[in-house]
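Hi there. Long-time user, first ticket. I'm pasting a complex I've been working with (about 474 residues overall). I'd like to know whether the download I got is complete or cut off, because the file seemed smaller than I expected. Thanks.
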Amino acid sequence: MYDIHLHNTKTRKKELFAPLDDKNVRMYVCGPTVYDRAHLGNARPVIVFDVLQRLLRHRYGAEHVKYVRNFTDVDDKINARARETGRSIAEICDETIGWFLEDMGAVGAEEPDEMPRATAYIAQMIAMIEGLIESGHAYAAEGHVLFSVESYKNYGALSGRSVDDMIAGARVEVAPYKRNPMDFVLWKPSDAETPGWESPWGYGRPGWHIECSAMAYELLGESFDIHGGGNDLMFPHHENEVAQSCCAHPEGDFAKVWLHNEMLQVEGKKMSKSLGNFFTVRDLLDQGVPGEVIRFVMLSTHYRKPMDWTEKKRKEAEATLLKWKKILYEFNASAEFAEEVNGADLHAELVHSLADDLNTSLYLTRLGQLAKSAAKGNKSDAVSLAKGMQFIEFDYDRSWEISFGTSLDRILETPEIVQQLVDELQEARSNKDFNRADALRNGLKRAGVEVRISKEGADFDFLPEFDASKLEGL
Ligand code: AMP
Ligand code: ZN
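Hi, the file is complete. Here it is re-exported in full:
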């Protein structure tokens, strides 16, 4: 048994994780609003919390973990998309959910145990709102119901803001029916063209925040272990979820631990359509970037740090995965290897890196160390490498043709020629024939072979763009 430590946004500290019930470890993560393809940033929380649920299942047993991630299928962005395209809301949501699951599956994320759609929980939202009105935490006005922020003394505690800061920083909507500009909508009226449901306050639809509170209560109870999402959601969305849930169910604490992933940027800039650096997961997959390369790049940065997606990182991830697969390819030629991997425990250092607030970049570094040792013939490290890859859904045993095109064939057929050239390079260096050594090194580089010289000798790696024909004439 080992301890897991997680950084809790609520306390701003890394804490020992102690589930309320270790036979029923419960996690809720805010999911997408379904009107369009997931962009690359959306994949970050999916991948981060997928690794966390794998760790929790490893620690507490697969059947003792319940992971819930919702789909927001009632939202003004969806309504707008339906108006623009003339398509029905149901059709747009169904199609987008299908895309989302397909794209997230392609980057190696398992499906949560429950994926509730907001529109299936309207009755529970109405019941929760009624309770909040009864207990004086909400009020109805002009077809709306608003949560009274002043009625909850801990409002702002999660994100660490005072109400004044929040008013100054947020785009609060001032409206005549609000008693306080910070009060937020639990229910609002719908017209004939907008989706709506009958309610005690007239025909209308829920606000965004109430859906997560209602679904989390219904599926996980008034207190559960972990709530996750991107840190852009901390305020107001998560702050409002806490207020609603803690006022509706004062006997509970809502989420004990809050985890927030930092944002993804592209080449150092915020991803946005106007900067022309906005792309979807599907765009990358269609360009031939393997899903596991996307996953690798995401995991190479700790979830609490801003992460930068760069072309350089993509190439490096591809080269590293290619290298590991090449090392394991040879071990995997024996029939028992897969059996050994399946029966193996996850290497203790790998476990500990994840158990330390999900240190996925350290995990990848450790895999690299195992790969080095495996390359020297250490079978037990090869098993650990393969197990560690499998644990986070890198396919060590999948044929290369599927994930990397034909590169493996090209590489496997040519190492002898490459080795000869690298040997020759070393010889030229010891004979102080630096012109010849440089020519060889540059020629190899142009062909996609990176040579590293150290005291122990010369070592080399194949880059994904490796092209044997460019070695001719060297
Ligand atoms: P949305 O559909 O915009 O509500 O976002 C769905 C999820 O993706 C939420 O958990 C967001 O916090 C997260 N998210 C959105 N943009 C980014 C980004 N650039 N980097 C990381 N996470 C993001
Ligand atoms: Zn939410």
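A couple of notes from our side: Residues 266-391 form one domain. The first strand starts at residue 5 and ends at 8.
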